[in-house]
Design brief:
The chain is of the alpha/beta class and 247 residues long. The protein has one domain: Carbamate kinase (3-Layer(aba) Sandwich). Helix content is 35%, strand content 18%. The chain contains 8 helices and 11 strands. It has helices at residues 30-44, 62-67, 72-96, 118-126, 144-154, 189-194, 202-210, 225-230, and strands at residues 10-15, 49-54, 101-105, 114-115, 130-134, 159-164, 170-171, 183-184, 186-187, 215-219, 237-239. The protein has a 9-stranded mixed sheet, sandwiched between helices. The protein has a two-stranded antiparallel sheet with strand order 7-8. α5 packs parallel to α7 (202-210). The radius of gyration is 17 Å and the shape is globular.
Length: 247
């Protein structure tokens, strides 16, 4: 399939840190990260430009650190470093599969990664490289969800793919606790916030709304999901006012 036949030309994939830990409960399961990388490669082979934002919850959560007595800003900075660790590992896994990858960080650490420079990131994408953004926005009190929305706006991504662990979309309630929860096929930004359906934090959703960037919430554990979304198939839940080809 050529680039012109795909639904989206440029995507931003948001992965939680917990997605990388598998069943270990902490750290990184290399089998899991390899499987995720294979899914990313399949989408890239369709000619799609791919950027990635990864959380750091598998290593350290700022909220948890603050709850245990750390200063909130200090805890958030440690969390940002955790995201960068995940990004470097994902970058190496993708490189090992022959994919040209660049890691850019909001916190300068030139020995291991490029600083985030918007136009450089876009140039990498145009040249067919995968760009992985680490360090959140570089500011405490801001989630990686908001960082994903901000980077998506800055690189003019067509869509954000919000990868969830064993949850295949947005539900009326938590499906893990309420078996009667109903899956929602598509929903507007405002309704998502009004109904308090916590797919992303409200500031991230508002950023997506302001920049007309749709969000697709999907289960990354289902093989081929990213490729299917890129092809325009109805996977997961579509959030936003710009609905593309979906009905």
């Amino acid at each position: 399939m050529s680039e012109s036949e795909t639904q989206y030309k440029r995507i931003l994939l948001k992965l939680s840190g917990e997605a990388l830990q598998g069943e270990k409960g902490f750290g990184i399961d290399l089998r899991v990260i390899n499987a995720i990388a294979e899914e990313i490669v399949k989408a890239k082979d369709l000619g799609v430009q791919i950027a990635i934002v990864i959380g750091g919850g598998n290593i350290f959560r700022g909220v948890q650190g603050a709850a245990e007595g750390m200063d909130k800003a200090a805890a958030d900075y440690v969390g940002m470093l955790a995201t960068i660790m995940n990004c470097l590992i994902m970058g190496e896994v993708l490189n090992s599969k022959g994919i040209d990858t660049r890691v850019q960080t909001a916190i300068a650490m030139p020995a291991v990664a490029e600083p985030f420079i918007r136009l450089r990131a876009i140039r990498h994408l145009i040249k067919g490289r995968i760009v992985i953004f680490g360090g959140g926005t570089g500011n405490p009190h801001v989630t990686t969800d908001t960082a994903a929305a901000l980077r998506a706006a800055e690189i003019k991504a067509d869509v954000i793919l919000m990868a969830k662990n064993n949850v295949d979309g947005v539900y009326s309630d938590d499906p893990k606790r309420n078996p009667d929860a109903k899956k929602i096929g598509r929903i507007g930004f405002d309704d998502l916030i009004k109904q308090d359906l916590r797919v992303m934090d409200a500031s991230a959703v508002d950023l997506c709304k302001q920049n007309s960037i749709p969000i697709i919430v999907f289960d990354f554990n289902k093989a081929g999901s990213i490729e299917q979304i890129v092809r325009g198939e109805k996977i997961g839940t579509l959030v936003g006012s710009r609905l593309g080809g979906r009905s």
